[in-house]
Amino acid sequence: MQQEGATALAAARPDPWRWFTFVAATIAAAWLFVAFGSDSDVANEPRSIFGWIAIQWRNENFRHNWVMLLFSAYVIYRNREGLAQARTRPSAIGLAVVALSLAAHVLGYRTQLPRLSLGSTVGVFWGIPYAIWGWDVAKLLVFPAAYAFLCFCGSLLVEVTMPLRLMASGIACTFLHGAGIEAVRRGTVVFSAAGGGFQFDVADACSGLRSLTVMTALAAPYAYLTLTGFWRRIILFGMSVPLAMLANALRIFSLGLVAEWIGMDLAMMLYHDLSGFLVFILSLLLLIGTGALVQIDWRARLCALKPQKRFRD
Hints:
By secondary structure, the chain is mainly alpha-helical. Helices cover about 70% and strands about 5% of the residues. About 30% of the residues are buried.
């Protein structure tokens, strides 16, 4: 018993050499991404990849993305006991993750694709503890790393603004038809087919990009904290995308209703800004409702509905 206790105590003690390797590798990686992070526009943008993403976050759709890093840090702190008690074993796979991520950074740096380099930072900083302490530690860091990746690379969604505008206006027209209002869509413009009625353009600000970024940013921690099971969490996070698009289409649909029934001026001056808050509340309700449905054990409920066989004496 004393020998087992001594072994457990020795395993619980921090290994100074592993911690030294971890700190040294992390500092070296941070220096690499600061000194040789981006070469896309040296005259106007910093070389540091972290400075580059700070510039991207000035966009109004992504200006709160940095908060996501705080939640990743909170999850690591929340799992501190599990990390301390995890079995440690150096991993060659973790070392390969670091090597591949560094290769991706070199490719992004040479081809002036800073988003590729930015995504590789997550692989490097996740792969370092993976290589030093092994999978039992790395698996507890999967969610913080994935959430940080979403934080860094969420700005890629700006490339799909136009498809979002077209999809939102098309869905809104379908809803208007269902409500008995003749509406026509030309490009991103929705107008009344009766003539002399409403007409508005689904601009970039109304594309749903902001709703999409907010919903994905909220869905991930909500699924992680409230749901049990890997696939339940993945399903809820995946559902955040169509839920955000649906909520934005309903906003445009409601604008058409207000413009048709009350007037174009009231719809665009007063209700337009108010509808943004309403859509946010609706998105949260849809997310919570979907989470409740995903959490239900449908297999057990279906089995309970099956008729029980009766046995005769």
